[in-house]
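BUG-265 | component: ligand-complex export | severity: low

The export step for arginine jobs runs without errors, but we want the raw record kept on the ticket for reference. Input record follows.
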Amino acid sequence: MAKILMCSPEFFDIQYEINPWMDINKKTEKSESKRQWQNLHDKFISLGHEVSVMDGVEGLPDIVYVDCGVLYKDTFIPSNFLYPERQPESEYFSEWFKSNGFKIRNIDKIYNFEGHGDTLFAGEKLFFGYGFRSSIEAQFKINQALYELGKVKVVPVELIDSRFYHLDTCFCPLNETEAFYFPGAFSEKARSILQDEINLIPVDEDEAGLFCCNAVVLGKDILMPAGARKIKKTLENKGYQVHEIEMGEFIKGGGACKCLSFIVD
Ligand code: ARG
């Protein structure tokens, strides 16, 4: 069973615009975002997982999306957020990982790196999205740091559609060998790299727009933002159980199930 980190949503809000989904005139409905967050949390628990909840921080509305960093074995590499609005989040995340027994390894702040938003493991391959938030240069630094820790192969892929600014908005590994993805989010070269590295199930633009790729895969259970009927069916035919979770309030901020949870064990 997994151990999952979440951050409580009491300070979540749309206070600035740093991605095309965010519109400060479309505020979140506080009680509704709390309800949606709680449903996701309770779904993890009902599936037998453990959830550790970090406190939210006033003035950091996006900390609810736990884009904290990348974790490999017992080492945590914190994010270096691109936008100043999110930069203070890193110290809270580092604090949590430190006090939970992880080693912290920072990469130089000049390298923009958005952690779990842009890095997804499929077995020992780490897919690394760059182009909007994380930089290609950061990829070299992560590669170097992980190389010293184990046998990870970092696979950099370029993102080109600003709606899908983080890798986890358009790509979701199911296991070591298969992933579903929205092809339009990737450069041509990135598409061919992906094809060489993993078997791919495409999703269409409508369903990608419902954040279906922003899903959490826990064995045969997939927690996915509600409404993506086609990919749900495809995955069910492969033996997965897809649990649809309403995520409308968090999609207003540009994130959903996957951004709200970080698997730490
Ligand atoms: N508003 C946040 C931002 O733009 C959303 C982050 C979503 N996180 C993710 N892993 N996709 O940074």
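Assignee comment: Attached the raw record above. The radius of gyration is 17 Å.
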